[in-house]
């Protein structure tokens, strides 16, 4: 699959692929530092081709970035208003993410699937909320 895409989009040959996680029809690709623009380039044609070939919604996440950048990539195109760490009585933590809601529309992604992707990729437990 990726080889045929590499022929059409030579910039993919320079992308370092760290891994992939699939949850409920959403595929998260973890790529090297600075490689996200290479996948998002060509006017979104690469992302569309990946989505068509896999039959899944595709998210591109950058390896080795801080939590905020990871969450921004995960929840794009929505904006993050705030991120808080919640310490629970049992000693575990949750990360609370408040996203800016688009007027009168549902989020353009499956929140439950993205929460599971965050758990698998970064061992991060998320609590996602929306605000106007």
Structural commentary:
The protein has 132 residues and is of the alpha/beta class. The protein has one domain: 2-Layer Sandwich (GMP Synthetase, Chain A, domain 3), CATH 3.30.300.20. The protein has 5 helices and 6 strands. The strands form 2 sheets. Strands 1-2-3 form a 3-stranded mixed sheet, sandwiched between helices. A 3-stranded mixed sheet has the order 4-5-6, with helices on one face. Strand 5 (93-100), helix 5 (111-122) and strand 6 (126-131) form a beta-alpha-beta unit. The radius of gyration is 16 Å and the shape is globular.
Summarize the structure.
This protein has a single domain (2-131), classed as GMP Synthetase, Chain A, domain 3.
- The name of the CATH topology is GMP Synthetase, Chain A, domain 3
Between the first and last Cα atoms, what is the distance in angstroms?
40 Å
Total domain modules: 1
The CATH class label is: Alpha Beta
Any idea what the shape is? Answer: globular
Question: Can you count the beta strands?
Answer: 6
Helix content: 25-40%
- Radius of gyration equals 16 Å
Please identify, by name, the CATH architecture. Answer: 2-Layer Sandwich
């Amino acid at each position: 699959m990726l080889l045929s895409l590499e022929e059409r989009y030579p910039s993919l040959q320079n992308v370092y692929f760290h891994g992939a996680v699939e949850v409920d029809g959403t595929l998260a690709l973890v790529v090297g530092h600075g490689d996200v623009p290479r996948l998002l380039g060509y006017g979104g044609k690469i992302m569309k081709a990946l989505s068509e070939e896999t039959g899944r919604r595709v998210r591109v996440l950058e390896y080795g970035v801080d939590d905020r950048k990871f969450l921004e990539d995960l929840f794009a195109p929505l904006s993050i208003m705030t991120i808080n760490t919640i310490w629970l009585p049992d000693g575990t933590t949750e990360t609370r993410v408040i996203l800016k809601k688009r007027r009168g529309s549902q989020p353009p992604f499956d929140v439950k699937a993205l929460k599971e992707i965050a758990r698998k990729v970064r061992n991060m437990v998320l609590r996602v909320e929306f605000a106007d």
